[in-house]
Structure formats: structure tokens, C-alpha cells
Design goal:
Strand order of the largest sheet: 1-7-6-4-5
Distance between the termini: 15 Å
Bound molecules: coenzyme A
CATH topology of the largest domain: Peroxisomal Thiolase, Chain A, domain 1
Shape: globular
Helix content: 25-40%
Structural class: alpha+beta
CATH architecture of the largest domain: 3-Layer(aba) Sandwich
Largest sheet: 5 strands, mixed
Radius of gyration: 18 Å
Number of strands: 15
Number of helices: 10
Oligomer: single chain
CATH superfamily of the largest domain: Thiolase/Chalcone synthase
């Protein structure tokens, strides 16, 4: 038995923050941001929105596309770095918003690799027959953990959510999943603050060594894509669509170049919503499914890297 994605959905908050808007907030320029990152705008959640609100909209669209209703879902996994609260999990809050009475629901915290981790986990539940229909969501409100005075990070991130419904199938589906982590890099990309004694202790904003992240990302993304294709006796050139984590156009281009994958086989959405962390892969996937680029039978590779460091890939037949 395999697991197969049968519906995708996404949601971006209404408010758009352009590079020009950022020029009036910090010492930056549209030209610097576009040439270094490929980003032209990002979406920002309203003050009263929480990650489960964004997740709800994306989930409803994914379930509608799958032709399923809430009562059909028997597993919810939410990947997020910006949960609604310390606990309960955003997955439990989403479950309640969806009106689902009882099914396992939990969060996965693997930062920008979160969706790949969540999908790999859901695949194990579904392909083993433990669950029939899993809802897998990436949802983030990074605008809450950005220092809006720090030009080196505030231009990079945005808010959004993406979701898929994964169901049992006798045809592939997910072919293989590949997860990695190396905690020795935890200081390179982090939000080091925590809550203790009724207060935030330490820095509650993103702290990043940009060039170290860049080099590491290109190296491990190439490696994990090679690992995924060779596990299936394939070559990178067999991939119909590469759906990378949307952090930075230059990371995406460098990875594709090393793999010999032409850019017209790579789905790009970073220009329109910046780095939405765990939401970025399902957002890009949903865009390419809905605009008709991805067809039945095609080979699709999802890959991501993020704080931890964590990295991973999912290879699937659409
Ligand atoms: C962040 C990143 C775009 C910076 O690009 P870079 O080419 O490495 O630029 P540098 O960090 O070398 O900085 C170059 C200069 O630009 C400046 N700068 C940084 N942010 C700026 C901004 N928003 N606007 C204008 N100048 C900026 C720096 O202060 C530095 O100035 P200096 O030379 O006077 O010190 C790049 O390192 C990157 O994309 N890293 C990966 C980040 C990422 O994807 N993180 C998430 C992974 S999941």
C-alpha cells in the first residue's frame, strides 16, 4: 500500500508588504532584496490571526480538492515554528476548528523542513494502514518572530499556509522519504528566546548567519535530492517537477544547477511570498497543481532545509 496526495490547498493573508514598503522601514532597497533573494513581496497576517486560522483556510481548500469532508480525516499533522500558543498544539486547535471530534493530531517542529518531516510522518501512518486520510499542513506567521528593525532578516520572510490530503492507494504515490538533522548547527539559525517565569527570556527574534545558511543549504539539498533519486534507481534528469523550499531564488538556482535540472522544471513562488518556512513547499505545490503544471503520472520531488539544521526530501509520483 502507498500513500498519495489527492488534494492541495493554500492561503495567503490579504495584506501585502512590498520591497518598496520595506524601504521606508529599514535601510534597504528593492534592488538589493530582489537581486540577493528574488523576493518582491510577502504577505503579512493581521494582528488577530493565528497560525491555525491560516491552516484552516488552506485545509478547507485541500479537503475540497480531495472531495473529502472533515469527517473523513483521521490524522492531522501540522508543521509550524510559530504555533498559536505553547500548548495545546496547533494541530489540536485546527482539529477543533474543523469540527473533527477524535483523531490523532500533533505538531511537527522542524522549521523550514517541517512540511517534509510532516509529510514523511503521515506517509508512514497512511501507507501502513494505520490511517486512511491524513491532513498535512504547513502554517506560519513569521511576522511575529521577525525583528522589523533588522534588515538582514526582516526582508526574507512572510506568512502563509499550505495543506495536502494524503490517502491510501494501491498505486504510488509517495515513493520514498529522506529526513536528516544536525543539531550542531543550532546556533546558525535560531530564535533563541523562551518563556519562563512569566516572561520571555532571551532573544525572541530570528537570529541568522546568512552566508553559512546559504552554503549549507545548497550542499545538503543537492545531496538529499541525489539520495532520493538513487534510492529509486533514477537520475535528477528524470524529475518532472522540483518543488524546493522557497527561501531564496539563488539557493534554488544553485541547487538546480548542481543537479543539472533546468529552471523550467523548478516551481518558483518565493518572489510572491518570501520565505514562509514550513508553509513554503505546500504553497508552491498548490500553485503548480492549480495552474495545471503538474500532471498525473509525473515525478515530483519536494525538498527543504531549515533551522536545526534539518533537511529532507519526498519523491512522489503524481
Ligand atoms: C541573507 C542573504 C540574502 C545575504 O546575502 P549576502 O550576499 O550573503 O549578503 P551579506 O550577508 O554578505 O551582506 C552584504 C551586505 O549587505 C548588507 N545587507 C544585509 N541585509 C541588507 C538589506 N536588507 N538591504 C541592504 N543591505 C543589506 C550587509 O549589512 C552587508 O553589508 P556590509 O558589506 O557593509 O557589511 C544570504 O546570505 C542568504 O540568502 N542566506 C540564506 C538565508 C536563508 O535562506 N535563510 C533561511 C533558510 S531556511
Amino acid at each position: 500500500m502507498y500513500s498519495k496526495i489527492i488534494g492541495t490547498g493554500s492561503y495567503l493573508p490579504e495584506k501585502i508588504l512590498t520591497n518598496r514598503d520595506l524601504e521606508s522601514m529599514v535601510n534597504t532597497s528593492d534592488e538589493w532584496i530582489r537581486t540577493r533573494t528574488g523576493i518582491t513581496q510577502r504577505h503579512i497576517a493581521s494582528e488577530d490571526q493565528v497560525a491555525s486560522d491560516l491552516a484552516l483556510y488552506a485545509s478547507q481548500k485541500a479537503m475540497e480538492a480531495a472531495g473529502l469532508s472533515s469527517k473523513d480525516i483521521d490524522l492531522i499533522i501540522v508543521a509550524t515554528t510559530t504555533p498559536d500558543m505553547v500548548f495545546p498544539s496547533t494541530a489540536c486547535i485546527l482539529q477543533n476548528k474543523l469540527g473533527i471530534e477524535n483523531c490523532p493530531a500533533f505538531d511537527v517542529q522542524a522549521v523550514c523542513s517541517g512540511f517534509v518531516y510532516a509529510l514523511a510522518t503521515a506517509d508512514m501512518f497512511v501507507s501502513s494502514g494505520k490511517c486512511r486520510n491524513a491532513l498535512v499542513v504547513g502554517t506560519e506567521i513569521y511576522s511575529k518572530i521577525i525583528d522589523w528593525n533588522d534588515r538582514s532578516t526582516c526582508v526574507l520572510f512572510g506568512d502563509g499556509a499550505g495543506a495536502v490530503v494524503l490517502t491510501q492507494s494501491d498505486q504510488p504515490g509517495i515513493l520514498s522519504t529522506h529526513l536528516h538533522a544536525s543539531g550542531s548547527y543550532s546556533d546558525v539559525l535560531s530564535v533563541p528566546g523562551s518563556i519562563s517565569g512569566g516572561k520571555v527570556q532571551g532573544n525572541p527574534y530570528i537570529n541568522m548567519e546568512g552566508s553559512t545558511v546559504f552554503k549549507f543549504a545548497v550542499k545538503v539539498l543537492e545531496e538529499v535530492v541525489q539520495e532520493a533519486v538513487s534510492k529509486n534507481n533514477l537520475q535528477p534528469s528524470d524529475i518532472d517537477w522540483l518543488i524546493p523550499h522557497q527561501a531564496n531564488i539563488r539557493i534554488i538556482q544553485s541547487t538546480a544547477k548542481k543537479l543539472g535540472i533546468p529552471m523550467d522544471k523548478v516551481v518558483i513562488a518565493v518572489d510572491k511570498h518570501g520565505n514562509t518556512s514550513a508553509a513554503s513547499i505546500p504553497l508552491a505545490l498548490d500553485i503548480a497543481v492549480r495552474d495545471g503544471r503538474i500532471h498525473s503520472g509525473q515525478l515530483v520531488l519536494l525538498e527543504g532545509v531549515g533551522g536545526g539544521f534539518t533537511w529532507g526530501a519526498v519523491l512522489l509520483r503524481w
